[in-house]
Amino acid sequence: MSNIYWDSFKTFFHIGIFTLGGGYAMIPLIEEEVVNKKQWVSKEEFLDLIAIAQSCPGVFAINISIFIGYKLRKIRGALATSLGTALPSFLIILLIAMFFHRFQDNPVVAAIFRGIRPAVVALIAVPTFNLAKSAKISWTNCWIPVVGALLIWLMGVSPIYIILVAGIGGWAYGKYIQPTE
User: Fold this and answer.
1) Each residue of 16-25: pLDDT tens digit?
2) What phi and psi values does residue 132 have, to the nearest 5 degrees?
3) Sign of the torsion formed by the C-alpha atoms of 47, 51, 57 and 61
4) Model pTM?
């Protein structure tokens, strides 16, 4: 039997080292490893953990790794997964900080970064559409995330207010509007 702490550390380290674009770009990799391959959490639990990780202060990737690690083995599991998630970024940023000044004006490096940007947008867009599907967002309720995004983007409304209003609206809908079965 393998050591769950080492296995969870390696899993999140692997995800962290091979993901460009931050926590949201990690979602498909985390889902593949944690839900599909290792079956540490169910698809429904994963969707709930994503919602909670987004709502909590801090870095999304660390938040979700902490929640998954805690579910596996409480505090020690959370430490193993969060360290596995954070360590690759820390090491990569340390190396970049040590050597970037030598390459920052290089046209090849600048071109590489211009090419990476659109790919990162795609890496974030795909899990967004998959989450929408998993959250059962349809044509009848797709206005909610669209209006929320527009309020944040165009009007500068704090995401905290969007989350609070959406939570209260969901509670009210479930309590007073949605027909009981």
Assistant:
1) 888 777 777 8
2) -60, -40
3) positive
4) 0.64
